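Issue 218. Parser rejects a valid record. Input:
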Amino acid sequence: MSSLLVHIGLRATHLEKSVRFWRDALGLSVFEAHEGWYDLTDGHHNFRLFEHDGPARPPHVSGLLDYLHIGVRVPNLSEAARRCDDLGFRIIWDGVDAGKPYDPNHPPTRSFKVVDPDGIVVDVSADRNQWPGVDIEEKVNPGSGKTT
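Output the parser choked on:
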C-alpha cells in the first residue's frame, strides 16, 4: 500500500504577499479563500496558506537559508522567472543543483531558486525529470499524457 502526499500547510507571516507569490508568480490556483487562510491547488495537491498570528518567528536554524525547500514544476521557466522578477520576489540561484548566482540579464534555462515571503526556498523547474518518482500525468491517466 502506498500513501499519497495530498496536503502541505504553511503559516505565512504576510498572508496576502504569500498568496501573490504562490498564485501570481508560480501559478497555483486559489480553490477557496477564508479569513486567515487560502487553499491553493495545482489540481492534484492541496496547499494551504495560513496567516501566522503567533509570536515573531525565530531566524532560520543556524543561518542556513534552506533547511526547508519546496519544488514546483512550471510549464514555462522563462515566464515564471519574469513573473517572479516583476513581482519583486528574489531569485537567488540559476539552477537547482550545482547552479550559479542568478543574473537577471540571462534568464535561467533549466531551473532556478526563488525565496518566498517567509524565506522558504522554492526550486522552480520546467523539467519533467527534475524530481525522481514524480510523474503526475502518468499516475493520473496512464498512457494519455493528460491529467483529469
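Fixed in the parser; the record now loads. Confidence is low (pLDDT under 50) at residues 138-148.
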